[in-house]
Design goal:
Elements: H1 3-22, E1 26-33, E2 36-43, H2 49-63, H3 71-76, H4 85-100, H5 110-115, H6 128-135, E3 143-146, E4 149-152, H7 162-179, E5 185-189, E6 192-196, E7 205-210, E8 223-229, E9 232-238, E10 243-246, E11 249-252, E12 267-274, H8 277-290, H9 292-302, E13 305-311, E14 317-321
Antiparallel strand pairs: 1-2, 2-5, 3-4, 5-6, 6-9, 7-8, 9-12, 10-11, 12-13, 13-14
Helix pairs in contact: 2-7, 4-8, 7-8, 8-9
Bound molecules: adenosine-5'-diphosphate and magnesium ion.
The site of adenosine-5'-diphosphate has 25 residues, from helix 7, strand 9 and helix 8.
Length: about 325
């Protein structure tokens, strides 16, 4: 080989090593927020842990009913409050999804969630009289946002954004990362995920759909399916982690806001893929209320995809999915 060829080869090797060495590292940040865990992985020159923390704190200060100083708590306590931009954004999206699901998704479900013992206040004994009296105060059409204030028809009405806030938190962290030029990331809060670009093995991000095994501790994690996703959001709602038994009946933490009762059907979990995580999160909960057939109709109209796991009469489990879902796990 000619000398100049050898030199060129050496130059190429050195250049490649330098390029690889200059690649920003992947950072992982884990913590606790909204009563659950978050796990964020991103490729960046800078460590953005402080920015992640403050993004999540500001969502919590707006939307967490467990936070005594949050905007949503002030609204639930009927204190005169100007809402922030995050609250307005989530409120508008929640109302849109309530409309699209005929009220199956409804953030005014709070008094019922609390009564059934799944909310931010202690549960009471629930009977049909209690349910009927609380239903008067539930209904997304009885609240509106005007001049940055929530107007309630009934002071007893309370809001619960638990079924959309985790997804929204993921979206906010993703926006923050984008603003720092980060292009490869995976943001997960309590099982709701936003992913973009590649993981540290230069592959698409893998996101597992859990097998719906009854498990309050959340420690069993057998996977039903693995999704390969980039540039989309995924959220799962299920009744196998948060539930309790009463008189031998399993009560799910998803409530049908139209009847006032926890949903009781064969659907065990609904996983939704959408362009943003707040949307995926809210529809996943709505689909647990409306069941598979209606959910598939909505998926067609809204250009979202879904994967359902349900129990069969024989005691086993089976799955259904939209056509578009298949490409994420093939
Ligand atoms: P998970 O990630 O545990 O499945 P979800 O995102 O489905 O949680 O949200 C469930 C929570 O949403 C409940 O604990 C309750 O606070 C609230 N919720 C229950 N039913 C509804 C409903 N029909 N519409 C909106 N929020 C609901
Ligand atoms: Mg949800």
């Amino acid at each position: 080989m000619k000398a100049w060829k050898i030199l060129f080869l050496i130059f190429l090797i050195v250049a490649s090593v330098l390029i690889i060495k200059n690649e920003p590292p992947y950072h992982t940040d884990r913590g606790f927020i909204f009563g659950t865990y978050y796990n964020i992985c991103y490729k960046s020159k800078e460590n953005l842990q402080h920015e992640i923390d403050s993004t999540l704190k500001s969502v919590d200060n707006s939307l967490s009913p467990f936070n005594k100083r949050s905007v949503i708590t002030a609204i639930n306590e009927n204190r005169d409050t100007i809402v922030d931009a995050q609250f307005s954004e989530v409120f508008a999206l929640a109302q849109e999804i309530s409309n699209a699901t005929d009220g199956a998704f409804d953030i005014t479900v709070a008094p019922l969630v609390n009564a059934w013992g799944f909310g931010f206040k202690q549960g009471i004994t629930v009977d049909s009289i209690t349910v009927d009296s609380l239903l008067q105060y539930v209904g997304y059409k009885s609240v509106e946002l005007a001049d940055n204030k929530v107007i309630k028809q009934h002071p007893q009405t309370m809001l619960d954004c638990s079924a959309i806030a985790k997804g929204y938190g993921c979206d906010r962290v993703a926006r923050m990362l984008e603003s720092y030029g980060v292009k490869d990331y995976m943001v997960e809060i309590g099982g709701e995920v936003v992913s973009k670009g590649k993981n540290n093995k230069s592959k698409q991000w893998s996101i597992g759909i859990s097998k719906p095994t009854d498990d309050k501790s959340g420690t069993i994690n057998e996977l039903q399916e693995i999704l390969h996703i980039s540039g989309k959001s995924v959220a799962t709602s299920g009744n196998y982690r948060n539930y309790r038994y009463e008189d031998g009946r399993k009560l799910s933490h998803t409530i049908d806001p139209r009847t006032g009762y926890p949903v009781a059907h064969t659907l065990l979990s609904a996983t939704v893929i959408a362009n943003d995580c707040a949307t995926a999160d809210a529809y996943a909960t709505a689909f647990m209320v409306i069941g598979i057939e209606k959910a598939i109709e909505i998926c067609k109209q809204k250009e979202i995809d879904a994967y359902f796991i349900y129990s069969t009469p024989e005691g086993g489990i089976s799955t259904r999915e939209t056509d578009g879902m298949k490409m994420y796990h093939k």
